[in-house]
């Protein structure tokens, strides 16, 4: 049995399953980076080919990028939120910046929703799980927090169980580079537009797929998901 299977087998998913329309699928793993050049981080990407084309592609050593956060549920999307410093310059996320975003952006946005029954799910990245951050989220969601160090633990390195990772970010990235943005402001506008234009039915299907993944992994005790992973 995989680590994911062991954790899910010990988690009572019935406390989550009836309310899946009301689950916030929180921050994707390390958030999402959008490079101005459309650059893809190939650390975990490998392409095998029978031919050796003897070609090369030049890329900047430190390409410009945006770091973007969203929360997704069946009823909508909160965000995007772009991490910037006090001078308005784009920055990456750390524990303090993440907690400031939760305090100053996410929690105020929740006032537009009935938070009494909402769940919040986030991955176990270090910047998400500082004690002060977990306490802040528990103050808002109580026991309806799915997180490392939270009331309901969540298996690490499980991007295939996080809708933003396995669907939203890829969907957005497939569209925002169509007009070849030349500035970060242009890229930011594209990201906002694509997310704002997302159809409600697409979010419903995303969450339905998420619950199917939970059911499959629990029933199979953590085995790899076959074609269900592609049914969106």
From TrEMBL:
UniProt-listed InterPro entries: RNaseH_sf
GO terms, molecular function: nucleic acid binding
PANTHER family xrefs: HTH PSQ-TYPE DOMAIN-CONTAINING PROTEIN, TRANSPOSABLE ELEMENT TC3 TRANSPOSASE-LIKE PROTEIN
Protein name, per record: Transposable element Tc3 transposase
Source species taxonomy: Eukaryota, Metazoa, Ecdysozoa, Arthropoda, Chelicerata
Gene giving rise to this polypeptide: TC3A
């Amino acid at each position: 049995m995989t680590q994911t299977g062991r954790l899910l087998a010990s988690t009572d998913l019935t406390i989550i399953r009836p309310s899946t329309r009301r689950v916030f699928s929180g921050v994707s793993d390390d958030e999402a980076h959008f490079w101005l050049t459309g650059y893809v981080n190939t650390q975990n990407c490998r392409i095998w080919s029978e031919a050796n084309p003897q070609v090369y592609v030049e890329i900047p050593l430190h390409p410009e990028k945006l770091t973007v956060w969203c929360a997704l549920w069946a009823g909508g999307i909160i965000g995007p939120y772009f991490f910037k410093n006090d001078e308005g310059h784009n920055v990456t996320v750390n524990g303090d910046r993440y907690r400031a975003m939760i305090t100053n952006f996410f929690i105020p946005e929740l006032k537009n929703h009935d938070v009494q029954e909402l769940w919040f799910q986030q991955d176990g990245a270090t910047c998400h799980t500082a004690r002060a951050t977990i306490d802040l989220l528990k103050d808002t969601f109580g026991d309806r927090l799915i997180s490392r160090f939270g009331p309901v633990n969540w298996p690490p390195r499980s991007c295939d169980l996080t809708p933003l990772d396995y669907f939203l970010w890829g969907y957005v990235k497939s569209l925002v580079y169509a007009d070849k943005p030349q500035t970060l402001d242009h890229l930011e506008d594209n990201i906002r537009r694509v997310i704002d234009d997302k159809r409600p039915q697409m979010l419903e299907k995303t969450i339905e797929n998420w619950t199917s993944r939970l059911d499959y992994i629990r029933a199979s005790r953590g085995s790899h998901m076959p074609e269900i992973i592609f049914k969106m």
